[in-house]
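User: My advisor, Dr. K., asked me to get a structural model of this assembly before our group meeting. I'm new to this, so sorry if the format is off. These are the inputs:
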Amino acid sequence: MPAPGMGNLFEQEPFPQAAHRELGNTQMRKNLRHATHTIRDKRLRVVGELPDWEQLRDAGSAIKNSSMINLEERLLEFEKNFTARGGVVHWARDADEANKIVTDLIKETGSTEVVKVKSMATQEIGLNEHLETQGIEAFETDLAELIVQLGHDKPSHILVPAIHKNRTEVRDIFLKEMPVVDPDLTDEPARLAEAARKHLRKKFLAAKVAISGANFALADTGTLGVVESEGNGRMCLTLPETLITVMGIEKVLPKWEDIEVFMQLLPRSSTGERMNPYTSLWTGVSEDDGPQNVHIVLLDNGRSRVLADKFGRSALNCIRCSACMNVCPVYERTGGHAYGSTYPGPIGAILSPLMTGIEAEDNGSLPYASSLCGACYEACPVKINIPEILVHLRGDDVDANRGKRKIPTQMDLLMKGGSWALGKGKNIGLLEKALPLGRLAAGKSKKIKKLPGIAAGWTQSRDIPAPPNKSFRDWWSDEKESK
Amino acid sequence: MRIALFATCIVDAMYPETAKSTVKILERLGHEVIFPKAQACCGQMHMNSGYMPEALPVVENHINAFDTDDYDVAVAPSGSCVASVKHQHPYLAERLGKPELKERAVAVGKRTYELSQLLVDVLGITDAAKQLGSYFPETITYHPSCHGMRSLQLGDRQLDLLKTVGGITVNELPEADQCCGFGGTFSIKNADVSSAMLEDKVKNICSTGASACSGGDASCLMHIGGGLSRTGAKPKTLHLADILASTMEETVKL
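Assistant: The format is fine. Below is the predicted structure of the whole assembly, which you can bring to the meeting.
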């Protein structure tokens, strides 16, 4: 089995416990309900404009699958072409290796400050925290990332990292944390953007090194691409002398023309826009223009492990659009922090345990964080069957715990008993003879209001109706067969 | 046609009237209904809880009960159980390395229909009042259960059938496509999130002014009904089959 992923991929407490706490944060729930519902509606509107949306999803899924089948070949092809254009390729097995490579590259330049364009991969490996221990300060330049960084907070969404904060909360963070800021700053979006622009512009002009992620790499040309909204990414990608990109190995696409499909799928699925404002593409070094030292760190960190799981590998198709979390009824109520990992929501609930292994920390509790309603699968632009993989991982979790416990849990006993009871028509028939007893227990109100043990989870908010006197099975025998 | 009824365990044990309604509707159309008595459950509870080896006897039992030449098509008054038969049974067989079982699972799945699927796609029902004699003089609203809506792609089949019932008024449910929060053992494992989802569903149902919420899955209706009952809300829950079986002569009471 390939090396497991490490870094910020872990749920640190059982999900139900984290969810319980987050559910109590009414301001966060209000912000999140508003934000997710707004994005949902926008997405539906722009997706509805395309008559071939389903075919585009099929194409996206097929291109990704074809990349994964020959991933090694595609990566080597990319390496060859990226190197031929003056770029330098580095390979990182895990978070530690990637952090070390990036640190060494920065140290070689003599810089102690770097600017960053938003990148999930560097969040995943905890690059900022690592750089801090090495005396290097990293400045996030994506507006939402900046809010999170200034607020000493954690991202709670992969596209809108500060989705859990509203405008007033953002203003308060700016007033408290920005070194130079207008004390009369209001929470109008234009004023907030202006404050951020003034704060960031100085950094862009001074920075010698930038760190980016990448939305895709094209194997046949050796090109990298970043898709963004603000233009701050483009500043990072063009102004500094050294550009270091950290990218998961699954982001490689076979051909230049594959962008055609993903540039239709990604903006619509993520921000609900037909086209995003800034798309930057670069191929190695351009003479006398832009960064002259161009590096890429190709990051595994558990991805080969995901690839090895035939039921789970399509999780690597993810293009980090965040449509699944925007439509998820669980994410909408708990927010992203409840998932612990850099990757929250439905995709995180499968990706984190797939990358780290189901037994790592509390990642085994993540696949249960879903009612299996399927809204995520329906929204996914590359057709990852998230509900099916969630169920598959629950199977892995139960199997991993088998024999570990001396005393079986109530759930173990329920399932064992259920296996017998529901394994034969005559067994369930036998148990159904006891239905009148249940009816008796329900009493006059014909409701069961309190159950013991794990079933108390049900009766905390729901009654159970009194069972009937006779099962359908018995009615059939009595009424249909005897006649 | 000779139609095998897959009653589903929850309907068999908790809502026998819904299975009887299903039989009534099909017999009214002149079909013969059989009930393969070896059947018990689709095994969804086990699989969705991650207990795969424990699910195997349940799934095998279902396949053995329905892998026969004794009927033309099988029908269940549940989108969720049919989705499990169609999608989860082949997955389980593959996971546990049983290719023969997988083949049989796929064959059974192909012949298994959710009630509205059978009525609309196979039996050509477009007007419940005219073709089934359905009559139900109440104001209802309708919750499309997730597995029917998304795994089986039922579209408006259930809703369209309900709208053509005689005497009925169907009020639209706000945020109808949102899950009620049941999710099987999700409702006890993640009881807090599940309850928060149910709370919104109950609020939306009450906002319609309907006296009942209908749907195609007894399990979701038990969940929603349990929430309505706990909050003391007026609306009841009633399965699609029970409304379709209701007639002028024998009108179902709420």
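One thing worth pointing out at the meeting: Chain A touches chain B through 70 residues (CB under 8 Å).

User: Perfect, thanks a lot.
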